[in-house]
Amino acid sequence: MKTLILTLTITALAATAGAQTIGQRERNQQQRIAQGVRSGSLTPRETARLEREEARTRAIVHRDRVDGGGMTAAERARAQSRLNRTSQDINRLKHNGRGR
């Protein structure tokens, strides 16, 4: 039962985020981080943390694409989940009242 719920959740997340490709979402998140730096809403430490998260996601996606000639549905869902988590982190850190 838990497996079924997990599968449905992952499928729903993948379908929702499917409007943008993984690459488009990564670029969008990089722009959001850069905007936070420009506006001063992200501290250098917060920026470094978000950049590390982004780099880890890029490395995983690259490995999944190269390993076996493409990404499976499960790998895409896992990547979208990581991107969702990073997006939430960007939002939380940009609006936490800390800054320069």
UniProtKB/TrEMBL annotation:
Signal peptide positions on this chain: 1-19
UniProt-annotated stretches for the region Disordered: 19-100
Comp. bias regions, Basic and acidic residues: 46-67
Chain intervals with Polar residues compositional bias: 30-41, 81-90
Keyword Signal on entry: yes
The entry's keywords: Signal
Superkingdom: Bacteria
Protein name stated in the entry: Uncharacterized protein
Native species: Paludibaculum fermentans
